[in-house]
Amino acid sequence: MEALMTALTYVLQPYHIGVIFFGTLIGILVGAMPGLSSIMGLSIMMPLTLSLEGNAGILMLLGIFCGAIYGGSIPAILIKTPGTANSAATVLDGYPMATKLGQPGRAIGISTMASTFGGLFSAVMLLWTAPLLSKFALKFGAAEYFALAMFGLSMVTSISSKNVIKGLIGAVIGLMLSTIGINSLTGSPRFTFGSVYLMGGIAMVPTLIALYAFSQGLSNIEDGKKGGEKSNAKLERILPTLADIKTTFPTILRSSVIGTVIGAIPGTGGDIASWVGYNEAKRWSKHPEKFGEGVPEGIAAPEAANNAISGGALIPLLTLGIPGDAGTAVMLSALMMQGVVPGPTLFTDQTGMVYTIIAGLFFANIAMCILGYAAIRGFAKIGNVSNTYLTPIVFVFCVVGTYALNNNILDIFMMMIFGAVAFFLIKCDFPMPPIILGLILGNLAEKNLQRALVISNGSISIFFTRPISLVLIIISVFSLLWPIIHPLLKKKSAEK
């Protein structure tokens, strides 16, 4: 308790609070720019953080980490372009609420509330349950990771309720794209056509930008004078109403738990957590058919889940020295440069540092909340920008964001090709989320399927004899069959 109070006293110093606010602001701005990820923001700012005295640099990195996750929801809601992969699911209901319902302020307000709660919840869980959750994460082997990927893919039926067949086709497209590159187990190239560029596989960021941003720009051009949907940014109310809080609180709480648990599993991330959170919100909803039309739960669920990752991902980092996602991998590098060695001994040898990180994470989320609500009116003006100006800006961000990742012009060409293909798929009513989901989970599924079969000498029984794997597979099968079972149950109930 004494160590915790000492850490709070340290973090609450004006200089350190200022550092946290500055880092959070940078993170929000980076996250709000499509193509610029939290990883990029952390990497760019790391040299600056190393020059700061004491633990101020770590506090700034925590601010950037939290701010970037939240910032990705802003363009997702206003211009249908997720700033980061973590916010892709937010598009489904955030953009319709901002445009069709004309409530951009309400959408961002709900996003800010859910993001803050998810982040604070994960910080508290990090404080109280880090050892417990890290032990649970250690139980995940190859079979469990494969089952987790299958569970994620089973969500296609939920996010493609309007046309499950096209959703499944989209997921297959994503899975096929994930197989491009070097086989991680055998080392053999696949579908590279002799190209050195394709040996590294399909890059996530250029693909995400292509499917959501570049294709939207092409749609805006096609719309011509209509310019597509535009948000009516008259922010009559920014703070969520009591009705919104009451409606979304169960969803926010559920998604916060989901995000924290998934974050504690190394190798996962906010993108997976957001889709799982969205799927479970729809599964538990009394009106699942309204999802995709701008329901508050559809915004709150992914935002609470992906922000809860911030604390969850730090659990394996601090307790095991294993980064939970790419963002915490950068954090690991920064900590080691500061002379901090994460691992089982950290909680005994450097207790003060542990509590400083936890306290910093807590106040980074508070800073995110304050800055988020303070700037909502400014953010919402993005939605009122004419497509005459907005479309070129989107294209510029597409090119800059894509190129900035690897400084490779081939990424730009790949982004344009995928963007053009996505445009025609959208015209044919193919949903984009299943493609992203297949691409994200494809590598995870294949890699761990191969490993599990090697461990079991080719026997598939390994997936059914391990409790966690078995439970996840059962849930996945049920999720895939639910669209078939549900109408039959409704028909039977109606006949009675």
Task: Name the features.
two-stranded antiparallel sheet; mainly alpha; 24 helices; 2 strands; 496 residues
Write the layout of secondary structure elements.
Layout: H1 2-11, H2 14-32, H3 38-50, H4 56-71, H5 73-78, H6 91-99, H7 104-138, H8 142-153, H9 156-159, H10 164-178, E1 181-182, E2 189-190, H11 204-223, H12 242-263, H13 270-284, H14 296-312, H15 314-320, H16 326-337, H17 346-349, H18 351-374, H19 376-380, H20 387-406, H21 409-427, H22 433-455, H23 462-465, H24 467-495
Antiparallel strand pairs: 1-2
β-strand number: 2
Uncertain parts: 225-229
Count of helix runs: 24
Helical proportion, percent range: over 70%
* Strand line-up in the sheet with most strands: 1-2
Radius of gyration: 22 Å
Instruction: State the major sheet.
Output: 2 strands, antiparallel
Quaternary organization: single chain
Apparent shape: globular
What share of residues are in beta strands?
under 5%
Mean pLDDT across the residues is: 80
Q: Please, how many domains?
A: 1
Structural class: mainly alpha
H/E order of the elements?
A: HHHHHHHHHHEEHHHHHHHHHHHHHH
Distance between the termini: 61 Å
